[in-house]
Amino acid sequence: MSKANRIALFSLGTPQMRAFHLTWMAFFVCFFAWFACAPLMPVIKGEFNLSAGQIANINIAAVAVTILVRLVIGPMCDRFGPRKAYTGLLLAGAVPVIGVAFSQSYESFLFFRLLIGAVGASFVITQYHTSVMFAPNVVGTANAATAGWGNAGGGVAQAVMPLLVAALMMLGVSHGWGWRVALLVPGVLMLIMAALYWRYTQDCPEGNFDELRATGVNIESGKKGGWASFRTAAGNYRVWMLFVTYGACFGVEIFIHNIAAIYYVDHFKLSFEAAGMAAASFGLLALFARALGGFISDKVAAAGGLNRRATLLFVMMLGEGLGLLWFAHSGSVAGAIVAMLCFGLFTHMACGATYALVPFIDRKALGGVAGIIGAGGNVGAVAAGFLMKGIGNTQQTLSMLGVLVTISALCAVAVRFTASDKSDGPVLADNKVAA
Prior knowledge:
- This protein is mainly alpha-helical and about 425 residues long.
- It has helices at about 15-35, 40-50, 50-80, 80-100, 105-115, 120-135, 135-170, 175-200, 210-215, 225-235, 235-270, 270-285, 290-305, 305-330, 335-355, 365-390, 395-415, 420-430.
- It starts with 14 loop residues before the first helix and ends in a 6-residue tail after the last helix.
- The model is unreliable at about 425-435 (pLDDT under 50).
C-alpha cells in the first residue's frame, strides 16, 4: 500500500484516512488543553491576585517549553514512528493539564502551565503523520486541513471554557472551584484520545516502523531516524527561512490566543463571557482558513511549480502584517473584531502555506524539518511574550508585531527550489493509490 493521492473525507476504511481523522482529533484535544487556561485568566487573575508581569510570565511559560519538545518530537517520529510518539505525548501531557486544576499559588500554576506547553508539540506529529500518508498532489491540503481543524481546538476552548465554568456555577459549584473542575475536562479527553490513537492508527501506509524495520524494509522518512534527521534538516537554509515565517504566523496565532480574552476585557471592557466569544472567533477561523492556505498552495504549485508556493506564502504574510496593524489601532469593539478576523484569515492561511512547503524541503529528514520549523512558531510566540513584557502595553505590542511580521515576509521570498528539487515531484507521485 502506498501514499494516498486523494482525500476521501468521509471514509475511515484505509490507514491513510484513519490517520487523517485521528490526527486532527488528537491535535484538537491537545490545543483545547493547551489554551484552556487562557480564557479563564480574568478569573484566575483574581484568584491568585496576579500582576501584569506575572500574567506575562504565565503566557511566556505556556509556549516556552514547546520549543524544546517540538525539536525533539520530530526526530522521535523518525525513530519510533508517529503512533508511539503521539500516544506518549497525550499520556504525558494529560498529567500537567489535570495538575493545573489543583494549583494553589502563582508559582504552582506557573509550573504546570510551563509543562502544559509540551502538548503544543502535537502539531509536529500531526504534520508528520499526514506527510507520510499522502502524496504530493494533496499533501498540502491534508497537512493544512488536519492542522487547521486541530488548531480550532484553541478557538473552541476560548468559547467553551467560560461557558463551562458558568454552567458549573449554576449547578452549585463555587466560584473558586468552577474553573478548577472545568480544567479537568481537557485532561480526561487527552487520556481517551491516547487510547484511540494507539488502537486505530499505524505509522505509514505499509505498517508500523518497528515492524517494517524488523523485516528489513527501509523507511523513506528518515536517515536511520533520530538526530541524523535533525542534523540534516538543520543544514538546509530553507528550513530556517520557514522557521522565521512560521514564527511570524503561528507565533502570532499563539500570542493572540493567550492575550485576546483579557485584552477585550481590559481594553474594551467586555464581560468575561463576551470576551471569550470574541477571542474564539479568531481561533475558529482555523476550521477552514488553514486548509484553504494549503489547498491554494497545492493549486498554484500544480500550475507553476514549487516556487509558486513560496511566493503565495509571501503574499499571505504581507496580508497578516497589515491586518495586525489595523487590529492594533482599532478604536471600537466592532472594528477590532472585524480587523482580527481579517488578519486572522491571513495568519491561518500563512500557517497552512508554510507547512504545504515542508514535505518538499527534504523528505528523508522529514521529522527534523517538521520539528525545527514547528519550533519556530513557539520561538515567535515567546519573543512576542517578551516583547509585550518589555513594552508593557498590549496595543503597542500588537502594533510592533504588525511591523515585524510584514518584514519577515521577505524570508518567504528567499525560499527557492532548484531544478533537481522540482524533479522530485513526479517521482514522489508515482504509484500512489487513493484512500
